[in-house]
Specification:
Helix 2 links the parallel strand 1 and strand 2. It is globular, with a radius of gyration of 20 Å. The protein contains 11 helices and 11 strands. With 367 residues, the protein is an alpha/beta fold. The chain binds 1,4-dihydronicotinamide adenine dinucleotide and oxaloacetate ion (OAA). 1,4-dihydronicotinamide adenine dinucleotide (NAI) binds next to strand 2 and helix 5. 1,4-dihydronicotinamide adenine dinucleotide binds next to strand 2 and helix 5. Homodimer.
Amino acid sequence: MAAPRCSAKVQRLSTFSGMKAIGQQSSMRAASPITSSRQQVVRAARSQLAIEARKVAVLGAAGGIGQPLSLLLKMNRMISQLALYDIANVAGVAADLSHCNTNTKVTAYTGPEELAEALKGADLVVIPAGVPRKPGMTRDDLFNINAGIVKGLCEAIAVNCPDAVINIISNPVNSTVPICAEVLKKAGAYKPRKVMGVTTLDVVRSNTFVAEANQLDTKEVDVPVIGGHAGETILPLLSQAKPKVEFTAEDAAAMTKKIQNAGTDVVNAKAGTGSATLSMAYAAARMAESVLLGLNGEKDIYECTYTESDVMPGFQYFASKVLLGPGGIEKFQPLPELSEFEQQGLVAMKELLTANIQAGVEFANKA
Ligand SMILES: NC(=O)C1=CN([C@@H]2O[C@H](COP(=O)(O)OP(=O)(O)OC[C@H]3O[C@@H](n4cnc5c(N)ncnc54)[C@H](O)[C@@H]3O)[C@@H](O)[C@H]2O)C=CC1
Ligand SMILES: O=C([O-])CC(=O)C(=O)O
């Protein structure tokens, strides 16, 4: 008879693992495809990190991103309770997921009257609630609907779990993050180091495309992405790619365009049925994992994120690489020396990013 596929000894730290069982020696080759370039989860597994009981809430859990994201989180050993909230269809998603034999307990909450219970005690709240783009739309075109959704959810967070880290996926991220921050400020519950716009998909895409173009192993590539999360505000720092990759000016411009347009390419390929969901779930699960590793005290956990920051004078909110830790963002990495092309990219994004930020701040503060 075949041996059982999984035993108590073969519990993995997270979904992405490919990693060896906790308690066994990990090797680079066996490392997680998501995190191995950073080696952070591998190290956590090696050190048999003391794992605290953590509650994670997903708001918009029945959607295109919410469902695969919840599956990935259900497989994350650092999460003891996964609270799934949506305005509809979430009970079935939770019932389905609850049959996966991992130790994460899944609970479902439907509609505004159950939102408070979903949030109470959460260490991390991930928000993929809201409408996605259709071909021909910009992310800004989602503002009218999604701004109100994010505002309402953040008002509830301010009351029910003001200490939680918040990962905002809902577009337009350039505006929804300022909306979240302003709502929390008004409620006296703002922790600037804990409000993070999820731009991990831009990093994931950059790593993939740069690896493919240079015949590199994807899991060894790391490209920081700064600015924001829309069009020309997405600025991959190809000059800072690790390992070092030489680009001609023409190739750098083409690669930058490809990364900036990647979301639109998926929207067009899906032809009216939505935008990136699976790669976004993967990216958000990586970000959640990094946040939780940081909360648990693991060292050297770095991610790019869009947040209120002083890193780039002239931009109140900006995406850049940060060190994560027990307090959320522990430290901002100063911007490295940029190539001439990247400096031009910074100038080019100024008008759009400033307008996006202003729209968010104004929306949150109108009566
Ligand atoms: N940050 C990023 O890199 C990315 C962001 N996105 C954005 O993520 C958002 C979600 O995308 P999908 O999951 O594809 O959309 P979807 O339409 O498949 O799912 C959205 C879910 O949100 C729920 N929802 C709506 N109003 C809600 C409320 N008030 N409270 C709780 N849940 C609510 C809906 O019932 C639905 O289940 C979109 O705004 C999209 O543009 C998508 C891809 C990448
Ligand atoms: O393009 C969209 O609308 C969804 C998104 O933000 C992305 O895929 O980067």
